[in-house]
Amino acid sequence: APTPIVSVHGAALVAASSHLMLHGSCFLGRAGRTQFSLDHTLSPAHRHPVALVSVLRGLAFIRAAYGVERCLLFGDSAGGNLVSMAAAMLSNRGLLEELARRTGEPLLEFKYPAVERVALLYGFLDSEAPLEGASWGVSLGFRCVLDCYAPRGVDSDMPYAFLALRDGIATFPPTLLLAGEADPIFPSTYA
Question: pLDDT digits over 72-88, tens only?
Answer without folding.
Answer: 999 888 888 889 889 99
